[in-house]
Amino acid sequence: MRRNTFLISDEFPRLVRPSRSIAQQIRDVTRLHNDWFKESIPLIASENFMSPAAREVMNSDLHNRYAEGLPGKRYYQGNIYVDEIESACEELARDVFACKFADVRSVSGTVANLAVLMAIAKPGDKITAVGLSDGGHLSHAKMGAIGLRGLRAHNYPFDQKEMNIDPEGACRLIREVKPKVALFGQSVYLFPTPLEELRSCLDEVGCTVWYDAAHVLGLIAGKRFQDPLREGVDVISGSTHKTLPGPQHGIIVSDLTKERLELSLRRGVFPGVTSNHHLHSVAALAVTLAEAKEFGEAYADQTIRNAKSLAQALFERGLDVLCEQKGFTESHTLVVNVEEHQGGAKVAKALEDANVIANKNLLPWDSDPVHPSGLRIGSQEITRLGMKEKDMADVAELIARVVIKGDSTADVRADVREFKKDFTKAHYCFFEGEEAYDYPRFDGDI
């Protein structure tokens, strides 16, 4: 059944309906969602799927338990095995990121960011960060975590042609503002941050250097992007479900270059912004980190190769892919200016109707987040499904048929479904070749 032919009735929220009927409808709609994505090409740069082994431990009794505190120092009983899992997860994180410290208790990337802010800044402090329209994350802005903590934000000058921070302008800003914290990281992350070029001014000011690696965490783990801790960063935060294909969770790692940083980060996480820390997710993250240790370099390498190949194929078909002069991207993300094709919102909706899932996105010259001119595309999930460079031409052609040629989305959708039949298995994981879309289910009605 086509997903949007199953409409939740106007009566859905009404308590007069039998609760059993509502629960059954939720099951049915969830299964429709699963089936839809099995027949779709997933290109959202902030998404991925867990391996079969990670899903197994995610769907466990750990979900039902509490474990405030640290291993061996809990506020709850029943954590004998939880302590073992969490300790192993932190050890794996220290190994994968070659660092001295890891905390795996944050329940999301933004919660990890709040914990870092609790640890290294106080209300009224100044912070420098990438602006929203330049690809910065919502939590780096006044309406997000930075504003919630009461910091005064200053945005780096941004080079639109390079799609990166302007190093000379950023150094001038840092010397002028003298921030307590210099934050780097983006949700549109095409190229590594010029940390080496900024090193002298950061050292001169003496600020804490923080890197939000949510989007590129798996590329860093795979040694294919940049190595922030070796480039002078004090602390890295991130979510764990993008290029690191784990559960929706958060992580903080550091080499503890600042005095008392370990204690501050631990307290920032708990009791700062976290109570119980979703133990099933910690177990799934541990499995993901173990897989990253074994398969991460090959996965990161193929992800970047696919992104570059897809960008080139789209460019050859007439789409305005940014940064052609720089090879389009050095990450999993590419950005397309679709303003002449009715803008990002309409293009993303048309692609969705054809079972190609991407998202509208602000470009540096945009001011309206509802109707931006950009389309953001990520290669990490299709890479996880086993696609290689040769398959990027097929993906690009399906996109071009919707955006440039104006083909019927129903016709394209049929071809997407046929194409996707060859890509439903998990790769770069311990149970290679298992179905990526298999979830526990019980046949029959409630």
CATH class of one domain: Alpha Beta
- Helix/strand class: alpha/beta
- Strand percentage lies at 5-15%
The count of strands amounts to 17
Classified in CATH, the superfamily of one domain is Type I PLP-dependent aspartate aminotransferase-like (Major domain)
Q: What is CATH's topology name of one domain?
A: Aspartate Aminotransferase, domain 2
**Which regions contain 5 or more consecutive residues with pLDDT less than 50?**
none
- Percent of residues in helices comes to 40-55%
* Second CATH tier, the architecture of one domain: 3-Layer(aba) Sandwich
Based on CA atoms alone, the radius of gyration comes out at 22 Å
Mean pLDDT across the residues is 94
Question: How does this model look, in words?
Answer:
The protein is α/β, with parallel strands linked by helices and 446 residues long. The chain has a domain at 53-289: 3-Layer(aba) Sandwich (Aspartate Aminotransferase, domain 2), CATH 3.40.640. Helix content is 41%, strand content 13%. The strands form 5 sheets. Strands 4-12-11-10-9-5-6 form a 7-stranded mixed beta sheet, with helices on both faces. Strands 13-14-17-16 form a 4-stranded antiparallel beta sheet. β9, α7 and β10 (208-212) form a beta-alpha-beta unit. The chain starts with 18 loop residues before the first helix and ends in a 26-residue tail after the last helix. The model has no long low-confidence stretch (mean pLDDT 94).
Structure keywords:
14 helices; four-stranded antiparallel sheet; Aspartate Aminotransferase, domain 2; globular; 446 residues; single chain; seven-stranded mixed sheet; 17 strands; alpha/beta
